[in-house]
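Here is one chain, start to finish.
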Amino acid sequence: MIRYIIKRLLLMIPTLLVTSLLIFWAMDLAGGDPVQQILPENATVEQQEALRESMGLNDPFLTRYFRYVGGIITGDMGTSWKSGLDVFDTFMGRLPKTLLLGGTALIFACLISIPLGVYTAIHQNSWKDTAGMVFALFGVSMPNFWLGLMFILLFSLKLGWLPSGGTGGIEYLIMPAATVGLSLAALLTRTTRSAMLDVIRQDYMTTAKAKGASRNRVIYQHGLRNAMIPIVTAIGMQFSFVMTGSVLAETVFAWPGIGRLIVDAINKRDTPTVTGSIILCCVMMALINLATDIVYAFCDPRIKAQYSNKR
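Its structure:
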């Protein structure tokens, strides 16, 4: 297992290099002169050229890219052109808010999806199953930004129960977490239902019933326990998406997380912040996927044995 983890960590290096190159190239194509963003409007042409030369902006593209990669290796992810703050420190300052939103949305989704997925599976082809799948279809089909706007219109503007955006107490977290969590719950409901249907058809389920095990024990101890393997994988994949893909929810609810940081930086043409933040997001996704594989291995000893035998 240790050897497998080290191998996965080493494979992250070429992935991150290719990702950083594509991001750096895209931001270079987007244009925008950082000198005009840093210096005041009354700066002379000589001052602009001097700053451009000191920042290395006149160098060829590959020279600037490899200099940037060299800075990352030494722990320097650059400085924001707009705020003058260190990109890594800014990212880490926003990370707790995104972790809070993503973690709450994931817990919310699991509390809904796993019981609902099990319930629809054991009532397959009934109206209860149909109702559960209608919910799942609704959750998958509704865009996050539309759902968030509907929540604001209903619970904030019409009923006045919750604030429309910003941060503060738990009341500020409810609508953003529900917006992200509902679509996630819909996906996990379908995954749980499918996994339970596969398990229910297995011989050991019939054997457990024949031995006189109670219905709940057969479903939850024998069924859900074995069905958790694909469910855990789906949760890990969706959590990495929630951590890096809740841009719309953070924008709609003015939630100061990583997604909003990247959107604001793109609007301001703040290349160091955009590039550094996306690279750090890629690192997070890779680590989350690795953690998911490890949990997957502990859920299924057969997978753990395969990892242990890999060279």
